[in-house]
Amino acid sequence: MTSRKEKNLREGAAADRASRIAKLIAVGWISSEAEIPDDAIPVDPDLINLGGSYFHPTHFQAVQFRCSDCGVPQTWAAEDQRWYYETTGAPYYSTATRCRGCRKKEQNRKNPAGFSPGHAKPNA
To answer: Which of 41, 53, 79, 114 is close enough to 60 for a disulfide, judged by CB 3.0 to 4.6 Å?
Structure first.
């Protein structure tokens, strides 16, 4: 049995998808809904940072990559890409290179490096 909350989430996602596709058609990046795969998340042209590129991405789809540190194959999910590009405003040409674990190790390695002797460490 489907809960009311799940039904509302599905309906909201469908409305968001339709809205995004309508925007893509209006700005001329696509000519029809058929250009966006069913398993992809359409780009919101108002939120994407093209970073000076002439390329207009139309959708986010899961991307396979190999971690540059440990070499383990990873998947960058479409929803994670949507958040990264649209919420943080990262330029579209930047991509994932590290897995979550290696990214965390790199952050931990860089944090103490910012504090040289004679400088106070901020209160955590």
So the answer is: 41
Q: What distance in Å separates the CA atoms of residue 65 and residue 71, rounded to the nearest whole number?
A: 9
Query: Got the DSSP string for 44-80?
Result: -TTT-B-TT-S----EE--EEEE-TTT--EEEE-HHH
Q: Calculate what percentage of the chain has a pLDDT beyond 90.
A: 58
Task: Enter the tokens of residue 36.
Answer: 């966006």
Beta-sheet strands, E only, within the chain: 41-42, 59-60, 63-66, 73-76
Quote the pTM value. 0.75
What is the pLDDT of the chain when averaged over all its residues?
Answer: 85
Nearest-Å Rg of the Cα atoms of the chain is: 19
Q: Residue 92 in contact with residue 48, Cβ under 8 Å?
A: yes
Position 53 scores a pLDDT of 80
Who contacts 122 (Cβ-Cβ below 8 Å, separation ≥6)? Answer: none
Whether 43 and 59 have beta carbons less than 8 Å apart is answered as yes
Cα torsion angle, 46, 47, 48, 49, sign: positive
